[in-house]
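S.,

Sequence below, as promised.
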Amino acid sequence: LSKNSNQNIQLKAYFISTGYNKNLDFNHNLKFIFNKDTILEKAYKGGQRYFEQFDISPVFVSSAYNLFEMKSFGYRDKDRRFIYPDDLAIDFFEIEAKSSPFARNGSSFFRIEEQNDNFKLSVPSFSNEKIFAIDSINKKIAILEQAQSGTTISISSKSGEKCFSSISINDSLNFSNLSGIHIGTAKADDYSKIEFLSFSDFDEAENYI
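The prediction came back faster than expected:
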């Protein structure tokens, strides 16, 4: 996802609530959470299909890892007793956003508009200099000969009660929702050996460094 875009990110959730307590008006209590912040808390009637859409400003987007969660907070049975966990059927999620192409686990998939002029497109984070480009529309395959070696690093974190930290090095990603010190390393000579470590305090981290 592109943090520098001026376009909102659009998230869509399609789901079905099970048929518990259809005689009650609302019996499924859900929260939708993006990067640890609740963007919607709502109750739903049982036995129905639902759709929710969220427009998220790019200022809330992480440059490394982004987490979208859908959490259930229970329902009440016929005797009004609170039951947890709830039971829902998630159909699918959709995301629509302006993004910068990058490689993850040795591959990258993206679409671009038809171009009338020559243009340059950079796709970082490949771990190998031998890269194949596949044009699925025109059914063409090419071997790219201008790959440049290097290391791509993206880091994001959030402090406080809803803390998280993510480190992306080339096509490897580490995510943690624990507070502490998080370190990612890419060791020479070719930077292909990537390691992630987490420490609960500065003394432990200092001993490692």
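The chain has a mean pLDDT of 78.

Coffee later?
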